[in-house]
Fold:
Amino acid sequence: MDSPMTKARFLETLQAERSAWEALLDEVGEERVSEPGAAGDWSVKDIIAHVTAYERGLVEWLEAASRGEAVTFDLLDHPDLDYRNAVIYAENRDRPLEEVLRASEAVFRRLLARVEALPEEDLLDPGRTAWFVEPRWKQRRALWECIADDSYRHYHQHVPGIRGWLDDKEKRDEHDSANDHR
Structure:
């Protein structure tokens, strides 16, 4: 049985999952990060920008809630997931890699700081945050679960595709290298 969630455990998980995400991105390498095919036509750079857009929305939502404001997002609350993702892709596909990576790091630092500033009760007790969680998530949930969904659980959605793309690429590279030596 899993031990109950605490703020310290959640912060550890958030940081560990981010480290694992960054290790996978390092494995891709800068020379391949912009190649299409990691998720359909998307490159790993496109996936990073996509994940960052959701994390940025999460941070803005948390910052607004800390000021007592409920926020609605035009794009991130759009009911059509494919539409949302297409808009995020179009907005980011031509951004330079360095800019995408800097934004990803900065947004994650903001997220971590926002979580660190939250009282533990706000993270764990769905009743304390229902006023801003329920309108966005359409149900009463613990705040840590909402944060996990748009951060490390979102990474988990993309890891298999990136891993499969990397493995296929390595096999093709090995095959090409073997053919070059004939």
